[in-house]
From TrEMBL:
Belongs to the uracil-DNA glycosylase (UDG) superfamily. Type 4 (UDGa) family. SMART domains: UDG (SM00986), UreE_C (SM00987). InterPro entries: UDG_Type-4/5, Ura-DNA_glyco_family4, Uracil-DNA_glycosylase-like, Uracil-DNA_glycosylase-like_sf. SUPFAM superfamilies: Uracil-DNA glycosylase-like. Keywords: 4Fe-4S, DNA damage, DNA repair, Hydrolase, Iron, Iron-sulfur, Metal-binding. This is Type-4 uracil-DNA glycosylase. Gene3D superfamilies: Uracil-DNA glycosylase-like domain (3.40.470.10).
Length: 204
């Protein structure tokens, strides 16, 4: 981990990270994107197939859901720092298929990648952090944390991880809306927008 608070330098260093085995199969490291002056940070799980190919977070289907939700919550994406708890795409392939199927990162992989996420928190020092999904939430709030039990609450990160104490919220990952029943998607989307709006209100 380079001794710097410059996001560009951190991103460059992360390209050669071999902290866990995921780098072997992924196309590239997908570091966070956004300004160091961003007042809000959104943390997802890991890059997906399209993010792995593009080298940027939240550019695939889940990213489009997030874009729409941010718009409805009156939060400008350009003013948000977007990243993931894990910076490499973890996937499997069905026999005889080229399609890459998302696999949830292990606890070991999440912990191995956490120094990069903490470096981003130190560099940006956001006023608000939104954790999208269980993997992101557990990466900073512990393995026993349950999004369903604390969704909508204002939380606090452990002081040793974020001394500046950003207002922290946990909600679902946008990809969960795509995997859920079609008849439930409108309500699930409205709930995500509500969560983002509550987080955004902390910025004044």
């Amino acid at each position: 981990m380079p001794p710097t608070h410059e996001l560009a330098e951190l991103a460059t260093a992360a390209r050669t990270c071999e902290g866990c085995a995921l780098y072997r199969d992924a196309s590239q490291t997908v570091f966070g994107a956004g300004r160091s002056s961003a007042r809000m940070m959104l943390v997802g799980e890991q890059p997906g197939d399209q993010e792995d190919r593009a080298g940027a977070p939240f550019v695939g289907p889940a990213g489009r859901v997030l874009d729409k939700a941010l718009l409805e919550a009156h939060i400008e994406r350009e003013r948000v720092y977007l990243t993931n708890a894990v910076k490499h795409f973890k996937f499997s392939r069905a026999a005889g298929s080229k399609r890459r199927i998302h696999k949830t990162p292990s606890r070991t992989e999440v912990v191995a990648c956490r120094p990069w996420l903490l470096a981003e928190l130190d560099a940006v020092e956001p006023e608000v952090v939104v954790l999208l999904g269980a993997t992101a939430a557990k990466s900073l709030l512990g393995d026993d944390f349950r999004v369903t039990q604390h969704r909508g609450e204002m939380l606090h990160l452990p002081a040793e991880l974020a001394p500046h104490d950003p207002a922290t919220f946990a909600t679902v990952h946008p990809s969960s809306l795509l995997r859920g029943p079609k008849e439930d998607r409108d309500n699930a989307f409205a709930a995500l927008v509500d969560d983002l709006r509550v987080a955004g209100e902390q910025l004044g």
